[in-house]
Amino acid sequence: MEFKNYKMEDIATFSQGKQVEIENQYTEKKENMRRFLRIIDFTNPNEPIRYVEDFGDRYYAKKDDLVMIRYGSQTCGKVVIGKEGIIANNMFKINLDNSIVLNRYAYYYLKQDIVYNYLRGSQNSSTMPSINFGILNKLEIEVPSIDNQRKIVKILNDIDEKIDLNNQINNNLYEMGDNLYNEYFGKYKDNLPSDYNIVKLNEVADNFDSKRKPMSNRERKQHRGIYPYYGATSIIDYVDDYIFDDTYLLMGEDGTVKTDDGYPVLQYIWGKNWINNHAHVLKGKNISTELLMFALRKINIENIITGAVQPKINQENMNKIEFVIGSDSKNKELEDILKKLMDKSKNIIEENKRLEELRETLLPKLMNGEIDLDKIEL
After folding, report:
1. How many CA atoms lie within 13 A of 304 on its CB side?
2. Fewest Cβ atoms closer than 10 Å to its Cβ: which of 104, 205, 258, 285?
3. How confident is the model at residue 126, as a pLDDT?
C-alpha cells in the first residue's frame, strides 16, 4: 500500500473560532442563533448546550468538519469531529483538500499518539500549552489512495459507532433507573406511606477517606487511578492504603460538584482503583450502593455547597442530605432491579474499553501500512 507525504500547509487552511462573552451565550435557542461549541462540549458529553448569534459560515463547523483544540494542559492539540455549531476562539477548523485527503482519515491520523505528542512537544509555553497555525502547517501527513482512506475510515468508524451505540444504551439504563427510583420513592414528598422513611445520608452510607498522604520514594508505585469526574483516568503514583477494590460511588468534593441543574456529580465505579482527594467515596449500608446512587442522582445540593470561588461539599454538609427509602422488603425489590441494570452497564463499559483498545491497536498499523488494504474489499 503506497503513501504520499504532504505538509499540512499544502493541503489545508485553518479558520479561527469566534470569541463570545459569557453574557452573550444562551441556554435557549432564539431566532438567528446557532449552537456554540466550546472545548467542554467535546470533553464532557453531559454538558448543557449553549447558543449564540449566527456569526456566519466562517466560524461554523459542520458535523464532518475537523476541529482542533488550541489550548489546555489536557486538550491542546486534540482533534475533534462530529458536532455542528459556531466554534469558540480556543479552537480552529481545519479545511482540507478532500481530493487528496478525507476529513475522517485526517481525523484518525491526527488522533495518533505519535502525532499528538509531536504537536504538544512543538509548542513552547510552560504556563498555557497552545497550538498555532505555524506548528500545524509544518506537520507532515502520510496519505494513501482515496480508496484505501475510505477502507481505513470504515474499519475505525465501525468501532466508534459501536462505542457510541453502547454509550446510548448505557444512558438509557441510567434513565430507566431514575424512572424506577422515582416510581418507588421519588414521587413522595408529603404523606409518606407508613413503611416509607426520610433518611439522612450518613444513616445509609459509609463515607471513606480518599485523601492522599505524603509518600517516600520507597512507597511510590504506578497505577491507573480515577480522577473524577466523568471517568477520566491517568497513570499516577499511589499508596496501597488508598486503593479501593469493590463497588463504590464517587461524589464530587470540590471543583465540579454539581451539574447545571444543581444535582450532584456522581460516578459509579468498581474493581481496583486509586481515587484522588477530589471525591467522597460512598458505599451503601443497610441499602445497596446502586439504590444509594439513584436516590442521590436527583437530590438538589445547592444549599449544602460552600465556597464562592471553589465550590465544595464537606462531609458535615453531606450528612444533611435527605431522601426517601422504604421498608427492607420494598428496598430489596428495587435493589434487585437496579443491580441488574448496573451489571448491564458495567458489561457495556468493559466492552467499550476493549473496543477502544482494539481501535488504538489498529490505528497505527493502518496508518503506517502494516495492514495492507490494497487487496481487501470492505
Report:
1. 21
2. 285
3. 61
Domain boundary among 289, 306, 325: 325
10 touches 141 (CB < 8 A): no
Domain identity same for 212 and 306: yes
Closest CA to 12 of 86, 72, 92: 92
pTM above 0.85, yes or no: no
pLDDT above 90 covers a percentage of the chain that reads 55
Select from 170, 278, 293, 171 the least CA-distant residue to 234: 278
Judge whether 45 lies within some domain.
Answer: yes
Measured CA to CA, the distance from residue 245 to residue 176 in angstroms comes to: 27
Looking only at the bridges linking them, the beta strands covering 221-226 and 205-208 are: unpaired
Range scoring the smallest mean pLDDT among 108-117, 150-159, 315-324: 315-324
Q: Considering its fold, how many domains does the chain have in total? A: 2
The domain in which residue 209 lies consists of: 197-325
| CATH code of the domain covering residue 11 | 3.90.220.20
